[in-house]
Write a structure and sequence with these properties.
By secondary structure, this protein is of the alpha/beta class. It has one domain (5-247): Alpha-Beta Barrel (TIM Barrel). It is built from 8 helices and 10 strands. It has helices at residues 13-21, 42-51, 71-86, 105-115, 132-142, 160-170, 187-194, 235-247, and strands at 5-10, 26-29, 56-59, 91-94, 119-122, 146-149, 175-178, 198-201, 204-208, 229-233. The strands form 2 sheets. Strands 7-6-5-4-3-2-1-8 form an 8-stranded parallel sheet. Strand 5, helix 5 and strand 6 form a beta-alpha-beta unit. The longest helix has 16 residues, at 71-86. It is globular. 42% of the residues are buried. The mean pLDDT is 94. One of its GO terms (cellular component) is cytoplasm. Keywords: Cytoplasm.
């Protein structure tokens, strides 16, 4: 494939370097991928922008959970976008829904106006919209450049039928980027069955903590999350995905 986007979502400076070295064309910059990614801290944003040369898009997501936000959370998102502009972030990844399950068009427009000429990705809030085709048209009218979606299924592989329909319906007006559960093992089939030209994956591996001691009586977050492992981008997986896209 001559023109493709290989986007790797990362939540550390180390992962950003690994992604760039092994063929990523851009990164989605997140905090805490273990909970699906939230807005990254300014320290991480600044470090990544100073270390990599490929475009970096920051997710604007104030918390874990749904995408129906309070007025205070909305204000926080606006401030985060301004901060990203100040740090010369290349794009923002955002989404907001109404309680009824539609895109929150008026408030998204406010965020998009603040973003100015940054690249705009509608994130997987799209996947919990009640009508994906209405949301597609709303996203195009709002000025989004990309929709990150699993085709409203748990994984992009499972959602490949809807992904194909969305790509056909979009007809080049917006880039439909499959994401969620994408790996080098299913990437070729997803490309074949959807016609996608952009792909999003974490390509993560689990590395053990370097801590030599752990108190078994204490945990810092959810007890279901093993705090003795660290998420990190797997360079070989990024390289494998890159090579598949090159040869497709």
């Amino acid at each position: 494939m001559k023109d493709f986007n290989l986007e790797i979502c990362i939540d550390s400076a180390e992962s950003a370097l690994i992604a760039e070295k092994n063929g990523a064309t851009r990164i989605e910059l997140c905090g805490h991928l273990m909970i699906g990614g939230v807005t990254p801290c300014t320290g991480l944003i600044g470090m990544v922008k100073s270390l990599v040369s490929i475009p970096a898009y920051a997710i604007i997501r104030p918390r874990f959970g749904d995408f129906v936000y309070s007025d205070l959370e909305f204000e926080q998102m606006k401030r985060d976008i301004v901060t990203c502009k100040e740090h010369l972030v290349d794009g923002v990844v955002l989404g907001m829904l109404t309680p009824e399950g539609d895109l929150d068009v008026p408030r998204l427009k406010e965020l998009i106006d603040l973003a100015g000429d940054m690249h705009l990705t509608l994130h997987r809030a799209f996947d919990v919209c009640r009508n994906p085709f209405n949301a597609l048209e709303d996203a195009i009218n709002l000025g989004f450049h990309t929709i990150l979606t699993s085709g409203q299924k748990a994984t992009a592989y499972e959602g490949r039928t809807l992904l194909k329909e969305l790509i056909q319906k979009a007809d080049g007006r917006i880039d439909i980027m499959p994401g969620a559960g994408v790996s080098s093992k299913n990437l070729e089939l997803i490309l074949q069955e959807t016609g996608a030209k952009s792909i999003h994956l974490s390509a993560k591996t689990l590395r053990p903590s370097e801590s030599l001691y752990k108190n078994p009586e204490v945990y810092m977050g959810l007890p279901s999350i093993d705090e003795s492992i660290i998420y990190q981008t797997n360079g070989e997986e990024v390289k494998a995905a890159h090579n598949i896209l090159l040869s497709f």
